[in-house]
Amino acid sequence: MPLSPTSGGHDVGGLRTGSDVTLDVKVSAPQDGTYDLSVFANSMNTADAVKEQGPTNVFLRVDGKAEQEVHLPLGYRWLVWDHADAKVALTKGEHVLTLAAKSLDGTRATKSDALVDKIDLSLANPAAAETIYEAEYATLKGASTDYSRKKVSGPGHVTIGKDQTATFWAYSPDDGEFTLTLDTLGGGRAWLDVNGRRLTGVSAGTTVKAFLSGGINKITLTGQSGRLRLDRLRVRNTDGTLKPTWYEAEAARVAGTAKVAAYPLADGGKAVTDVGGAPGNASTLTFDVTAPRNGAYAVTVRYANPEQSPASHYNPDPLARHAEISVNGAPPRRAWFPHSFHADNFWELTVPVQLKKGANTIAFASRELPNFDGDSSISDTFPDILLRSKYAPIVDKIAVTPLAKP
Ligand SMILES: [Ca+2]
Ligand SMILES: [Ca+2]
Fold this sequence. Notes:
With 406 residues, this protein is an all-beta fold. The chain folds into three domains: 7-124, Galactose-binding domain-like (Jelly Rolls, Sandwich), CATH 2.60.120.260; 128-237, Jelly Rolls (Sandwich), CATH 2.60.120.260; 245-405, Galactose-binding domain-like (Jelly Rolls, Sandwich). Helices cover 2% and strands 51% of the residues. The chain has two helices and 31 strands. The chain has helices spanning 48-51, 378-381, and strands at residues 12-16, 22-29, 33-42, 56-62, 65-72, 82-90, 93-100, 113-122, 130-134, 139-141, 144-146, 157-160, 165-172, 176-184, 189-194, 197-202, 207-212, 215-225, 228-237, 245-248, 253-254, 259-262, 270-273, 285-291, 295-304, 321-327, 333-337, 347-355, 358-365, 394-402, 404-405. The strands form seven sheets. Strands 9, 11, 12, 14, 17, 19 and 31 form a seven-stranded antiparallel beta sheet that branches. The chain has a five-stranded antiparallel beta sheet with strand order 10-13-18-15-16, with no helix packed on it. The longest helix is centred in the first third of the chain and has 4 residues, at 48-51. The radius of gyration is 25 Å and the shape is globular. The termini are far apart. The structure holds calcium ion (2 copies). One calcium ion is lined by residues 248-250, 266-268, 270-271, 396-397.
């Protein structure tokens, strides 16, 4: 049907519970390679056919083979497009990509109900695996630019003296390990801060493995001694050094009314729900984790947040849930977990923490937060309208990863 926000003005429906639809797309690959495939799709999370499972699972095939299951994304309205990504190996030439509502062996079938707008196929340029941020384009405080030198990258470099700063805004598609390389012309030393945490001291030619969060990361160099002449920062996605250790929520300790429940799309098919409640509640989820040494760690939470108020005429009112995260019983740090459109739609969010060598506890708690007077609750004033959540997100599992390795 013709739809204004849709690429080409049309989309395709029919990949839904009980259907045997196959959608074939002819593609032409310019060369052999592993291509990034992006399926633009959408389901309304509260639609009758979607409510039970959430994301629509479909079966992606290349020339009728190499089947993989892909879960198409949710939105709070029809036609609010998002994308599901996969990798497909293609040889040079013509191919048919298929999205099917039944698996090849007939044992598995699509559930829910999705619209598909388009498929994008792209082949990554290996040279783009590394992103270069020129120091002379960084945000400088006190540090000065110098365009007099030849044989530098870009038009110049910067000189960073004691307590002067150069700040870079570096993009990362996902949470994970990156290698940060500083290309310098020698000089002094500087501190390296990532997202407000001091990781290490750096000097000429330093390479640091650092954990970056999906989205925009703030990377700051602050002069420590001497005058560091910085040409550029290089950022490359790597793996194998900052290794995550995963802990399943269903194997952790629950207290109060917090409980393990079945979530088919959670790892292990289980997650922990009902953490939080009324003020003063004791419904918590506590992980026992081990750290190899004292230091800063990234705690990545795989979570779902289904909390959503009934829509008004213009606003679907998704609610963020919050968790009070306490390490080793210390005063908690509050983290906010955006609406994920469904209890069985799990996303990842990373919170930095400080751990000590050996055994540590990481505890999740929640409650309805008070109004600005610090005392009254919005649920007392409007008991029939959900305006503030009293729960932490549903937690599938957490990963503990060192934040950096110099
Ligand atoms: Ca430069
Ligand atoms: Ca789990």
